[in-house]
Amino acid sequence: MLDVSLRELEYVVAVHRERNFTRAAQQLHMAQPALSQAILRLERRLGVRLFDRTSRRVEPTPAGHNLAVDALDIIDRVGAAIARTATPRRAVTVHISEPALETPRRLMAALRSADPALSIHLTTLPRSLTGDDARGPQLSLTIGAPIHAAGARSTPLRAERVGALMDVRHPLAQQDSVTGGDLERYPVVSIDDQLSQWNRWIAQWAMSQGRHPRWTTSAVFGIVAGSDMVTDGESLFVCLESVAADVGDTFRWLPLAPTATASWFLNWMDAHSDSPEVRDCVSGAAAFAEECGWIAGGNLPGG
């Protein structure tokens, strides 16, 4: 008998429903390339093509359609069985696009330690918080700006200095700071626009000085991966000061001049304001920020 996991069945159902790998990956809170590879591996194991891919649309084959219909029924029945069996637990979902960064790591650890009985589910690739999207208590940790949506609320937690990370061999490595003109002269690592507004914020900061960043041709999948792009000794990676603490001695981080800071915000919906789980997380996050001496008030455009 073929070994097919429940998670793989969820992949098939999501792609069948969305007819698009990118949207399906967003619904599953995973990277699109990872979803595509998972479907390809499943097709090889089953020995049948489940989806026909074109440049604009994904269409299920007859086999893919039949599997998706049966898989949805299986998933629903498993979910119902678990609901009848499991002990109810207090739970909240937190959306964080860059969970490996210092601020999310420390904040999530503090929240989990403060209330071990609260089940905190972390998801990546955060979606917009709207009334239709919000199922159960949810929060979203964002950087640069709070979520702007009807009924969205937020509280600032921390402001971090923004600067440029570079290889120690870089021509600017002996300076004290990096200017908008420097971002125009040297390639600036581009972050995937589908995941973050980071490029837009940096571009607006540079344009406030009459400058335009010279972006790298390749984009990276998130802020954490940006340091890999500066080992050429020429590129600059505009990032938070805390990112530089994780990269080692072969890199140097210099603050932007004039000074730029970016704020972290914890966001939730009005509909969840009365949820004990949301209230506990918001008050716990604010208390932890105060204990750490974090200061809010970023000056990046939109922050």
Q: Would you give an account of this structure?
A:
The structure is a single chain. The chain is an alpha/beta fold. The protein is built from 9 helices and 11 strands. The strands form 3 sheets. Strands 3, 4, 5, 6, 9, 10 and 11 form a 7-stranded mixed sheet that branches. Strand 3, helix 5 and strand 4 form a beta-alpha-beta unit. The termini are far apart.
Overall pLDDT level: 86
Order of helices and strands: HHHEEHEHEEEHEHEEHEEH
Put simply, the count of helices is 9
End-to-end separation in angstroms reads 54 Å
Could you outline the blueprint of secondary structure elements for this entry?
Layout: H1 6-18, H2 21-28, H3 32-46, E1 51-53, E2 58-60, H4 62-85, E3 91-96, H5 102-114, E4 119-123, E5 138-143, E6 152-167, H6 180-185, E7 187-191, H7 198-207, E8 214-220, E9 237-240, H8 241-244, E10 251-255, E11 261-269, H9 276-292
Parallel strand pairs: 3-4, 3-5, 7-8
Antiparallel strand pairs: 1-2, 5-11, 6-9, 6-10, 6-11
Helix pairs in contact: 1-2, 1-4, 2-3, 5-9
Provide the descriptors you would attach to this structure in a database record.
303 residues; alpha/beta; two-stranded antiparallel ribbon; 9 helices; 23% strand
Could you give a short description of this structure?
By secondary structure, the protein is of the alpha/beta class. The chain has helices at 6-18, 21-28, 32-46, 62-85, 102-114, 180-185, 198-207, 241-244, 276-292, and strands at residues 51-53, 58-60, 91-96, 119-123, 138-143, 152-167, 187-191, 214-220, 237-240, 251-255, 261-269.
